[in-house]
Amino acid sequence: MNSQTQLSVNRKNNNQLEISFNLTAQPVSLYWTKENDVNSQERYLITANATSPYLLDDPLKAKQRVYFIIEQGGQSYLGAERTLPIEGLNNFRDFGGYAGAGGKRVKWGMLYRSNHLHRLSPQAVTYIESLHIQTIIDYRSANEIAKSPNDFVGERRTCHLDAAAQTAELAAQFSAEPSNEDRMLIESVIRDIPAELINGQGEQVLEQYRNFVTSEKSKTAFKAMIEVLLDKDNSPHIQHCRGGKDRTGYGALLVLSMLGVAEEDIIADYMLTQANRLERNEVKMAAYRQITDDQKVLDYLHTLIDTRESFIVEVFNTMKQHSGSVADYIKQELGFGEADFIRMQKNFLI
Description:
Radius of gyration: 21 Å
Strand content: 15-25%
CATH class of the largest domain: Alpha Beta
Number of domains: 2
Structural class: alpha/beta
Shape: globular
Largest sheet: 5 strands, mixed
CATH topology of the largest domain: Protein-Tyrosine Phosphatase, Chain A
Number of strands: 12
Strand order of the largest sheet: 8-9-12-10-11
Number of helices: 12
CATH architecture of the largest domain: Alpha-Beta Complex
Order of helices and strands: EEEEEEEEEHEHEHHHEHHHHHHH
């Protein structure tokens, strides 16, 4: 099957999955496996007559990662659920599976992104441990980490790479207990943010995204992230910040760009955070409305937690303005060469 073959897995409820694929000739043989390997010998036949979409119960009941293989005419294709069913983590997902350089695809089960791993449930710890994580890349500040330390999930090591995303972590910068954090945030916005910026335009978030590209502290952090990934023994890995949106979104953009993933696919991956955090954001906004009825302040607060295509597009535009292309930015500003791109692709494309 060629690189245009797509197999998507979506959870319909706690235990039911929907498998979809775009093959014109159907039916196909459908298997499940615990391994992120299309050639796995430990595969279990679900049906030899699957048509798209195909509904089934999760073979592992959301206790462990499950992959699916479709097979037709001696050719096989692997796919998996992108956002994983981990209790308490609304934005833990695999950013594999996309079409990359040279007609290959990004490997599943190697590149994970998440919100912070704080106060995990037993189910969450067991599930993440089953992913065999080697490295955690934590983009949070020392203050954020002190307030909400990660739980141990079997990782070999953690890399603390402070990406200095002041706007993204406004709420986390306060020393208040979580129960008082929302009030302190709102008081700080009213006191410290220029009045002309307190609105729903998101200019401060856009500025933050530009700073990912231009600030030296950010460059240092994300260069170190790429260096970690160039050593294949450091993956599978998880990269995360507080909510898994801004700093993590930028880190994923860099990795996927080096792997030759199309800009529109990178934007689409970023925007999955919007759906994943929708319920959480509604809860946050309801809490803010209990503290203030100033609509401009509420609109401003919403920009801090919202996921907008304009935010990630600002990154692409800033890189192109500086260097002409994303690849040239990574080479010129972060110091990587063509050999590093090839090495990254060998590590994570198949």
